[in-house]
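In response to the reviewer comment on reproducibility (Comment 2.3), we provide here a single inverse folding case reported in full, input and output, so that an independent group could reproduce the run without further information from us. The structure tokens appear first.
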């Protein structure tokens, strides 16, 4: 047996026992189904576990994570998660969550700098990671970072990335359809879906709201 795997299995057994002792019906209820109200689209970074940083329980948050919290409009994985979350599970809030000290954002910043200086890119654009990060590299090249102090460039990229992914999510047929159905006959409200952008500060453990929330009401104003 691998020592690390043994440690994970042991920790899981202890957690399951503690949870069952404190809440005897918890796992039985989980087995009956899920009804989370939040879809979290975040980074795969190990320092940003959504359930831990929000003090949530299993069943509270539907999750999709990848490198640099991207939402590509041609990505069937992300689109299928969004479709299932909104149309089947019934989430009401989609949150795009970036984080400080993001390695993917650093790689894109360096790739953009390499383009400017005609230097070799740090990541091959033909590699899986290079292809995945290409839209973010393109976004970085269009940011006016020269007007900002150098030490703030990475944070500016991280926030701009979250805002772009909010735009991408809002551009999907899934969200457009949810917004179109948000008002019933004679103005009677139905379930509304909102899209938000947040940034998690790794150094403080706090989430920051970027105040870019969008929903059906915002579309009709």
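Designed residues, in position order:
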């Amino acid at each position: 047996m691998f020592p690390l795997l043994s440690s994970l299995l042991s920790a899981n057994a202890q957690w399951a026992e503690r949870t069952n002792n404190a809440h005897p019906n918890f796992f039985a209820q989980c087995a009956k189904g899920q009804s989370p109200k939040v879809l979290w689209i975040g980074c795969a970074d190990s320092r940003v576990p959504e359930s831990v940083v929000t003090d949530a329980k299993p069943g509270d948050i539907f999750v999709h994570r990848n490198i640099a919290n991207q939402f590509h409009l041609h990505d069937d994985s992300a689109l299928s998660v969004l479709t299932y979350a909104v149309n089947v599970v019934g989430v009401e809030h989609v949150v795009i969550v970036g984080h400080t000290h993001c390695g993917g954002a650093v790689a894109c910043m360096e790739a953009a700098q390499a383009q400017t200086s005609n230097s070799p890119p740090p990541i091959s654009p033909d590699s899986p990671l290079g292809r995945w990060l290409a839209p973010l590299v393109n976004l970085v090249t269009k940011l006016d970072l020269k007007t900002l102090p150098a030490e703030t460039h990475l944070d500016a990229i991280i926030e701009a990335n979250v805002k772009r992914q909010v735009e991408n999510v809002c551009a999907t047929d899934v969200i457009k359809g949810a917004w179109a159905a948000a008002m019933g006959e004679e103005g009677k409200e139905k379930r509304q879906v909102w899209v938000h952008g947040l940034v998690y500060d790794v150094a403080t453990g706090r989430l920051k709201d970027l105040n870019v929330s969008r929903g059906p009401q915002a579309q009709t104003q």
